[in-house]
Amino acid sequence: MSRRALRRLRGEQRGQEPIGPSALQFDLRDDDDAEEEGPKPELGVRRPGGAGKEGVRVNNRFELINIDDLEDDPGVNGERSGCALTDTAARGNKGRARRGNTESKTDGDVAGTAPPEQENVLEDIDRILERIEDSTGLNHPGPAPLSSRKHILYVEHRHLNPDTELKRYFGARAVLGEQSCPHACSRHTLPEHSPLPGLSMRLLESKKGLSFFAFEHSEEYQQAQHKFLVAVESMEPNNIVVLLQTSPYHVDSLLQLSDACRFQEDQEMARDLVERALYSMECAFHPLFSLTSGACRLDYRRPENRSFYLALYKQMSFLEKRGCPRTALEYCKLILSLEPDEDPLCMLLLIDHLALRARNYEYLIRLFQEWEAHRNLSQLPNFAFSVPLAYFLLSQQTDLPEHERSSAREKASLLIQQALTMFPGVLLPLLESCSVRPDITVSSHSFFGPNAEISQPPALSQLVSLYLGRSHFLWKEPATMSWLEENVRAVLQTVDAGDPVVEACENRRKVLYQRAPRNIHRHVILSEIKEAVAALPPDVTTQSVMGFDPLPPSDTIYSYVRPERLSPVSHGNTIALFFRSLLPNYTVEGERPEEGVAGGLNRNQGLNRLMLAVRDMMANFHLNDLEAPHEDDVDGEGEWD
């Protein structure tokens, strides 16, 4: 039976266990898998009451990411959210203190020896206890109670472990071989309770089923943060290395060096530094903070919270490049769940891509059905094309009943024709990216011709470039291209017939895509997709862009202020400033000291010097003086929400 059921029978709650060193990895020996997957959505069925919801008014649909009506939606704000992890730790503390640590060890033993009949009985008792909790109406901080359907942003913890996905692809032997490699991630060597002074998390408030948290820096950590900013501006990489020697878990320093290692193509070192940063922040988690429930919030306007966003994003990028799109999808959902209203890193421009790569078509369809009414997802080119592609790929699955496959194919054709009518400038660049030569009747037609791409507003061109640079290879399959060609011809017939919908879409393009929100620009910078970066507006490319805090919000909430000092980084183009923020000794032509002068280093020498310093620091980084792991947790069976 599940440990959760045993805890509930004893009166215990999640959130009371000591936080372990797993750094977003989980032990997979629990038997909770039966609860992880919610029911598959019926094809073509919209969320009840979604389309007819009153009080929702969008003046500029292009700014859909900043719509503030999610609090009124019970499917989004966490009320009856269906999260499987109930992090209400307010009860059971006294009982746990009396039992001590020995009972948690017994818990693992019972979980491995319970017979199937007893397991079924106790699972029934677990469901009864949950219904009793629902009927009491008690308002505890933390996520909302369990329901039959998971929250759309609920993170499945068993999919947060990339080894699970790699085992499905390559087998357990290959994964075990990688873990035994001396260059493999050293996450598991970290102690459970290492001293990380100064970094903590505070619960700000709980309302409407949501809990709002914030990271906090002590005075000691603030001093380290000030030293980090000075080190970045000093153009001397050893200053950051020296800072890490005195503060080995300073988050921004770890992320900064990770980017430098990544540019040097040392992926293992870069990933290890990001995981150390995540571990540092994990140790500071509040007991009620849950990564998986989808009901815990972190305000991006607070600088202390931004490091967690960026660390998760970088880890997600490593996972995707490593060939773990299913795990990366869960990280994407996690980032989006931290602030879904504002979506500061604009994960809605990426989540469809990861869902398609992970072949999780049902999730993408469900997200579109539930959020389209109030987030206008169809106004984003990536959703406009990815959702019909998901329907089409679903219709190709032979294990589905024939009527479901037929329904999915019809829905796919309807949506792709709407997408082509709304965004005709996508077709020819998509075909070019897929190395497909279009038919002469298509390329010469005024609707899909070169003018369709040229006449797009700049903000729309940026979104199209981002989507094609990231997802064009998903369309290369011959069956997909044949289906696309079929619908392109259908759209041309509609255009030639003078359908008024065509003119209406043209007018909407001119009105809706005048300017992209700041979070989209931030996403483009983080994506590093060159076609999209090249399309950034001049007001973004001419300002300073720091790798550890790209495009900070204009309404930042400061909890402390850095002492005033003149910053040497005050001019230059975006690329130079970005590299300077990552590589402190990077300089551009005209600024570089002459060779032979003290401090005169060319760029390659600076990169090599930085990498040697980082490797030397990591090689000599010892954990002997830190607290050793508890013997009770040697098997790594601790759970973490």
Automatic annotation (TrEMBL):
Q: Do you know which InterPro entries this protein is assigned to? A: TCF25/Rqc1 (IPR006994), TPR-like_helical_dom_sf (IPR011990)
Q: Which GO terms describe its biological process?
A: regulation of protein K48-linked ubiquitination; rescue of stalled ribosome
What are the annotated GO cellular component locations? Answer: nucleus; RQC complex
The source's superkingdom equals Eukaryota
Pfam families from the UniProt entry = Tcf25
Q: Provide the residue span(s) of the region labelled Disordered.
A: 1-54, 70-119
Protein name, as recorded = TCF25 ribosome quality control complex subunit
Q: Which organism is it from?
A: Rhinopithecus bieti (Black snub-nosed monkey)
Gene name on record? TCF25
